[in-house]
Design a protein that fits this description.
Layout lengths: L32 H6 L3 H11 L8 E4 L5 H12 L3 E6 L5 H10 L4 E4 L3 H10 L4 E4 L5 H8 L5 E4 L12 H5 L4 E4 L2 H8 L3 H16 L7 E4 L4 H7 L4 E4 L1 H5 L8
Parallel strand pairs: 1-2, 1-4, 2-3, 4-5, 5-6, 7-8
Helix pairs in contact: 2-3
C-alpha cells in the first residue's frame, strides 16, 4: 500500500504505477483485497484515536457517535480486541434495531439512537466514559459532553452535520473536559517512515489476520459499473476490483 503524505487517493483509476520503493509499506500477502484496500484509512484513524488520546484501561469505556461508519466500526472491533467497552450512537432511522444488532454483533457493548438521549445519559451515569470520539460535530457534540465524566477528553475527527461545533461553557469548564482534533493525513505527514507507523500497520494487519477486525461492509464492482457505484456510495462502501474489471465482458484489451 502507498504510504506517501497526501497519497490517500494514490492508485485510484489505474491498474499499475511506478513509484519510489520507500513510498510503499509492506503488508502480509494473506490479507484480503478488501482488508488491504481499507487498511491505511479508517482502521488507522480508529487505532490512532484510541492509542493517542488517553486510552482507557481494559474494562473502561469509550463513547462515540457515527458508530456505524467505517471508523466507528473499526473503533468497536479494536476496543473489543483489547478489552475496552464502547457506548455507540447512531442516527434515528427506520429499522434502527437492525443496525443496533449489527453493531452489537461486532462487539459494541451498548448502542443508542441520537433520539434516545435520556436512556443514553442514564447509562453513562452508571458506566462513565472518559474518552469520546466525535464524527458528527454540530449540536450532537453537546450530547457527548453531557455523557462524559469529569476530566475527560473529546476528540473531533469529522463534521458530518455540516454545522459549527457547539461547546457550552459550563460543560467544558466545570467538567474540565479537554478538546482535541484529529486528521489522519496530518498524522501521516508527521510520522511517515517511522517506527510508530510501522507498528500501527503491523498491529492492524494482525487484527485482520486474527479475525478480530473485519472490513467494513462493502460491494465489489468492475470499473465499468462506476455509475452504479456512485449511486450507491452513500449506502455502502464501493470497492473496484481489477480482476473483476479484466473479467468483465465489456473489457477490451488494446
Amino acid at each position: 500500500i502507498n504510504a506517501e503524505y497526501g497519497g490517500a487517493g494514490f492508485g485510484t483509476w489505474r491498474t499499475h504505477c511506478v513509484s519510489d520503493e520507500d513510498s510503499f509499506k509492506r503488508i502480509p500477502d494473506n490479507l484480503s483485497v478488501a482488508a488491504s484496500s481499507m487498511l491505511a484509512v479508517n482502521p488507522c484513524t480508529a487505532y490512532r484515536m484510541i492509542e493517542d488520546y488517553h486510552k482507557p484501561a481494559p474494562g473502561g469505556w469509550i463513547l462515540q457517535n457515527g458508530a456505524n461508519s467505517g471508523v466507528g466500526r473499526a473503533v468497536i472491533q479494536l476496543c473489543r480486541a483489547q478489552g475496552i467497552r464502547t457506548v455507540n450512537i447512531i442516527r434515528e432511522r427506520e429499522h434502527a434495531q437492525d443496525l443496533k444488532n449489527d453493531l452489537m454483533s461486532i462487539g459494541g457493548d451498548a448502542v443508542f439512537t441520537s433520539a434516545e438521549r435520556s436512556e443514553l445519559e442514564s447509562f453513562c451515569r452508571e458506566n462513565t466514559p472518559r474518552l469520546a470520539l466525535n464524527m458528527v460535530g454540530g449540536r450532537d457534540t453537546i450530547q457527548l459532553l453531557k455523557c462524559l465524566g469529569d476530566s475527560s477528553h473529546l476528540v473531533t475527527y469529522g463534521a458530518m452535520s455540516n454545522s459549527p461545533m457547539s461547546v457550552p461553557f459550563g460543560l467544558q469548564v466545570f467538567k474540565d473536559i479537554t478538546l482535541h482534533s484529529y486528521w489522519m493525513t496530518r498524522w501521516t505527514g508527521r510520522y511517515r517512515g517511522t517506527s510508530q507507523e510501522s507498528e500501527m500497520f503491523g498491529r492492524l494487519a494482525e487484527f485482520y489476520q486474527s479475525g478480530e477486525l473485519v472490513p467494513t461492509p462493502h460491494c465489489t464492482r468492475s470499473f465499468y459499473d462506476y455509475r452504479d457505484a456512485m449511486d450507491s456510495a452513500f449506502s455502502e462502501k464501493q470497492l473496484f476490483i481489477t480482476e473483476s474489471t479484466l473479467a468483465d465482458s465489456r473489457f477490451k484489451s488494446d
